[in-house]
Amino acid sequence: MTPMRDVLERNRAWAQRMADEDPNFFRELAEAQHPCYLWIGCSDSRVPANQIMGLPPGEVFVHRNVANVVVHTDLNFLTVLQYAVDVLRIPRVIVCGHYGCGGVRAAWDHRPVGLADNWLRHIEDVAARHEAELNALPDEGAKLRRLCELNVREQAINVCRTTVVQEAWRRGQTLSVHGLVYALQDGLLTDLGYTAQGPEDVPKIPGAGAIAEAPA
Ligand code: CO
After folding, report:
1. Which of 18, 21, 97, 192 has its CA 20 to 30 A from that of 120?
2. Contact call for residues 66 and 105 (beta carbons, < 8 A)
């Protein structure tokens, strides 16, 4: 069997299962989407947004890139964010990192990987801003895990600092930004407690002060 034929066959079996469970499923979804979450996650094949949240098509608007980085001038990301916030009025944004992230590891090791080095510089910046905290940790594994968490925190702050989110809060729109981390070993998400519900929860400068650390 050719690989593409395999894809199509699995697709037909899946569509049939969904239709068997709910004959109206595709017809209703085709009319409109009303997702509850915008997911900003890593491209890693082991961290698929819908599946790990246990949600079907229609529930999650998704943006993924290597190491879940939020860059202020990334037009691709900003377009996703603006559509999610301004048009779909999604009330919750999740920035989700994962332990064992290859992008975070490459940045930490300063291991050249080609063009992607330029992208991973953003994570090197995160590591540099938190050098003292990371150096105080006992071993390489602990440092890497903490850098994955700090990367989530900083990218969540970057989401909060976009004009899109700032404007939404200014006009009184309900919008919260949350930081989660996923463990490949057991499939479990942890809420890092980096939650922002308004501009008062966001430090002006990344690395200075804390985004509110109370559990969401
Ligand atoms: Co990753």
Report:
1. 192
2. no
